[in-house]
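My main concern about presentation is that the manuscript never shows what a single data entry looks like. In essence, backbone conformation is discretised, so a fold becomes a row of integers matching the chain in length. An entry of this sort, consisting of the sequence and the corresponding backbone structure tokens, reads as follows:
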Amino acid sequence: MRKYLAEFLLIILIAVVSSPAFAQAKASEKPAAQPASTSAEAALPKPKFNISRFKGPIGKRYVLKDGMILLVKEERSLPMVTISMIIRAGSVEEPYRKAGLAHLTAALLTKGAAGMSAMDISGKTDFIGASLGVGGDTDYAVAHLTVLKKDLDTGFSLLSKVLIQPTFAQEEIDRTEKDIKAGILREEQHPGYVAQKAYQKMVFGDENAYGRPVEGTAASLDTITRDDIVAFHNDFYVPNNCIMAVVGDITPAEAKGLVDKYMAGWKQKKVPKPSIPALPKMALRRKYINRDVTQATILMGHVGVARDNPDYYKLYVMNYILGGGGFVSRILNTIRDNMGLAYDAYSYFDARKYSGAYTVGMQTKNDTAKKAMEETLNIIKNMKAGEVSDKELSDAKDFIYGSFARKMDTDSKMADLLAQVEFYKLGLNYFEVYYNGIHSVTKKDVLDVAREYLHPDKMDIVVVGNLKAARIK
């Protein structure tokens, strides 16, 4: 997960990228202090944000007879419909020694289904001007369809066939595996990928899905057979393991009708539960990888939080001030602008379903790598030392509020958002929960979560660069 992917997940999971627990304080924490907290909240300045347009449920939710969760939001401005489906079939579900199985299975779904070849599926999709794709990630797989309303039946039929009746032809398996391996080889030439791969393994351990590349490795792909793929599909691609979000020129009755018409033969079944290995303890682990490059790529961090952590909104605001706010964040402002030590520097909490990491990343000249790391650790320590300023808190909230609407400015984004809201159990009043979660954060909250969740003295560090020039051993 590169920086931008992680930042996207962070904002969506936050701006979706978390749980009902976020809407309330921990009942066990300082109950006597609640009146003061309420008073402090009331005293907060009102943000420059019009919450009225985001009040109420963001869609309608149905549990269908086959166990599928259906979410529908009508948007009549364009004669189009977008469907985003989350299938709980991510790499957290695959055996450790079959790393890449979930990603490979998802990639193969559009490579042949119900008597159609990959070319047939692509041709039918292009003919109606639709887009259809399936991809696998760590927590889940995603299927996505965007189609004109007049071609909705054709598009939905294609979607149902690739999900329910994939062919998994051996020649397509071989071809897709070859493409994935070629992609891995290309990525291995990029310092950022090399650093991220080593960093994930260090923080989570390679037996944990969060600690390895979602596409697996060339060696693990070689162990995967067609039987493995078929079994994985049979186990996890079932309706009661799916969330379908439908947004656009469609009614709930029409959406239900499509499911009944094209997915009637999809039978629910008991789904295996994932086995998530225990996380390694935080430690001062180091990994230095030599590459003949002109600048060093540095990743520093440790285990962070899962998406349902009740402090997540506080963490989001805190991290915006620390390293998530670009040029206005402390890390980039100090490391790049004031000291000229790095071309880029950032931090983020990449919260997932079961865990996540807190990560600080940067790129710098080889000969300034050590200095940049030392100064960054000092900035993090200072974040734990005292409250942020009124301006820092106000600016962070204004940006977060201002950017919120951009997370749902297309039907495609809204469909993805709806599906994730359900997956992370945020509730259909998510917009209000999000708004209240950000608005209620105080300077004390920022300091409290910095002290609890930032551990600069226990950070794992990966450096990919010219180690001789960087004077790192």
Remarks:
- The CA atoms of residues 38 and 172 lie 59 Å apart.
- Residues 1-44 have pLDDT under 50 and may be disordered.
- The chain has two domains: 3-23+37-56+277-470, 60-262.
- Residues 3-23+37-56+277-470 form a domain with the Cytochrome Bc1 Complex; Chain A, domain 1 fold (CATH 3.30.830.10).
